[in-house]
Design goal:
CATH architecture of the largest domain in chain A: Beta Barrel
Strand order of the largest sheet of chain B: 12-19-16-17-14-13-20
Number of strands of chain B: 21
Distance between the termini of chain B: 64 Å
Radius of gyration of chain B: 20 Å
Organism (chain A): Occultella gossypii
Protein name (chain B): Biotin-dependent carboxyltransferase family protein
CATH topology of the largest domain in chain A: Cyclophilin
Oligomer: heterodimer
Organism (chain B): Occultella gossypii
Domain Carboxyltransferase (chain B): 28-294
Order of helices and strands of chain B: EEHEEEEEEEEEEHEEEEEEEHEE
Structural class of chain B: mainly beta
CATH class of the largest domain in chain A: Mainly Beta
Number of helices of chain A: 4
Shape of chain B: elongated
Strand order of the largest sheet of chain A: 5-13-6-7-10-9-12
Radius of gyration of chain A: 19 Å
Largest sheet of chain B: 7 strands, mixed, barrel
Helix content of chain B: under 10%
Strand content of chain B: 25-35%
Largest interface: A-B, 47 and 44 residues
Number of helices of chain B: 3
Keywords (chain B): ATP-binding, Hydrolase, Nucleotide-binding
Number of domains of chain A: 2
Structural class of chain A: alpha+beta
Number of strands of chain A: 13
CATH superfamily of the largest domain in chain A: Cyclophilin-like
Amino acid sequence: MQIWPSGERAVLVEVATLAQVHALAAALAAASDPRIVDVVPAARTVLVVADSAAHLPGVAARVRDLDNDVPTARPVGGLVRIAVHYDGADLTDVAGATGLTEAEVVARHTAPEYIVDFIGFAPGFGYLSGLDPALNLPRLITPRLRVPAGSVAIAADRTAVYPRASPGGWRLLGRTDAPLFDVTADPPALLRAGMRVRFEVAG
Amino acid sequence: MSDRILTVLAVGGGLTLIEDLGRPGFAALGVSPSGAADRGALIAANRLLGNDDGAAALEVTMGGLTVRAESDLLLALTGASAPATVDGAAVPSHQVLAVAAGSVVRLGIPRWGLRTYLAVVGGLAVPEVLGSRSTDVLSGLGPEPLRSGDVLPVGWARSALATIDAGQAPPTGPAFMLDAMPGPRRDWFTQDAWRTLFAGRYRVTDVGDRVGVRLRGAPLSRARDDELPSEPVVAGAVQVPPDGQPLIFGPDHPVTGGYPVIAVLTESARDAAGQLRPGQDVRFRHHVSPVARTDV
């Protein structure tokens, strides 16, 4: 574990694996230290933000002390099931590019249990790993200016759901009515780092 | 008694937004803290009025705002030094201004600085989103940018008598010196780049955006070329993309960034960065980190 100061109120903690990122983030959340206002997991790092500059040394010491206790195994996150209407604008193209039928693309997308690696790009946008390698295709060369909210999409080795309409270059397989981000909900985001996700064909 | 309301009669060419101290605590869900770009100026205005430090106020970019008070109100102006009038008579900044119902408050173009804060006793009482009234221009949370004709509700003072606290003295000119400490990826840059950052001037290239401010000057060369996995960033982080030209993240920065952060501004320098104008030159000054780097 390496701890780098990131300004007067935060430290960036680097660990070896994504599983350790999730374990450290979970341990810090469980500690519910009132001096810590934000814990932000990413691919190999966790940002820990203190409520004041005066509290940063104590918060950094807390992170250091946790190092011995953080398990190296990924904590088992909650399971979210997302119902998908597989009628996306790129479904036919994805089938063509992968040599699969549309039904096979859907079958391969609904088979795995995905992990939310981290949240980024937009509020509630989770980067999900675990995609079937047969569906690994690059992003669109020309991104769309407007991807509809709820679009279920793939790019390279990941899949994701667009929480709201935005530009985007992922390939659209379908759409969901699940509320990915709702400011009136608690918590407002359906997905959080470390959670497990399964996509199901909407009935 | 008339309603406690500010009516927007005109907005300037830059954005006029409602901002408070933001919504920390949601970054793990992809939501940046947002909040006033110059928090010191917002807090100074609120303290003048006896408001909570985080009461919501107007953040006026490059002046040009005209509002009418629909009831008797106390207000204060801080931040960028914009010439202001109440019913045509010049009024000072960094003072409590008592305006009568029907008075028109007008802000001209700032002589220096970018963002002027107009705060009212009781704060602006628009609905909160995730615990904050701030507009986040990147994620689209919070109130829409103000437009002519908008009607803004004003809250009630929390005490009958405002506790006047002058707070910090008003700034007297543009900030050109930004205190910065080593960032988490300082080692991704050459020693020469580290010296370069503090040696020369950098010019603010485009309109100060709340997402980030791009600078142009001597390029900062990297000591390693591998790709950095996206990592969380803070407001005030100085990120360096492949062209070597630094970018300072603002309050509505993306939660994660894909380029190494060479340095991070101090909290007060971050506020100063919120006042940088296009074409202005800035320099960086080395500041010692509050905690040591640790390998555990």
